[in-house]
Amino acid sequence: MASVSDLRTGIADAMGAISGLRTSSTVPDNPRPPIGIVMPERIAYDLNARRGADTYFFTVLLIVSRADDRAAQNNLDAYLVGDGSVKAAIEADRTLGGVANTCRVTEMSSYSSLPIGDVLYLAAQFTVEVVA
Fold it and tell me: Rounded to 5 degrees, what angle do the CA atoms 27, 28, 31 make?
């Protein structure tokens, strides 16, 4: 059975295929956009009998710089759909390098401004469902 750390790392590594995107499997103190940060959300235990598999839900927080409103939205939009999207990158190898049975990105939500310290960024959240 995979550890939460292994799954976080697998998701971060998969997003690393997106050109120019930094990734982190842990929450950094000072994120440097553009960055995708993987955070555990919840675990549904005992998908299969006898601890055969659990379903893990992760949030990927994708943050881009917001120096200009229009440019920030265009930058963030590029990660939402298509070949360079978070969904395409993560689902390119649904086993996350062999640590999961399967995974899928189920939704994007919370497309909004995100204050971190004194700086305002633009961010979106993705939900990743992993069976392992």
Answer: 120
For 57-75, the pLDDT digits (tens) are 999 999 999 988 899 999 9
d(CA 63, CA 75): 10
Residues 46, 41: Cα–Cα separation, whole Å:
17
Query: Regarding the domain delimited by 4-131, which CATH topology (the fold level of the hierarchy) does it fall under?
Result: Alpha-Beta Plaits (3.30.70)
Answer yes or no: pTM beyond 0.90.
yes
Residue 62 CA to residue 81 CA, distance in Å, equals 13
Give the confidence band of 13 by pLDDT, cuts at 50, 70, 90.
very high
For strand 102-116 and strand 35-44, is the pairing parallel, antiparallel, or unpaired?
unpaired
In order of 8, 63, 111, the CA distances from 27 in angstroms are 11, 12, 19
Q: How far apart are CA 128 and CA 132, in angstroms?
A: 13
* 3-class SS of residue 12: helix
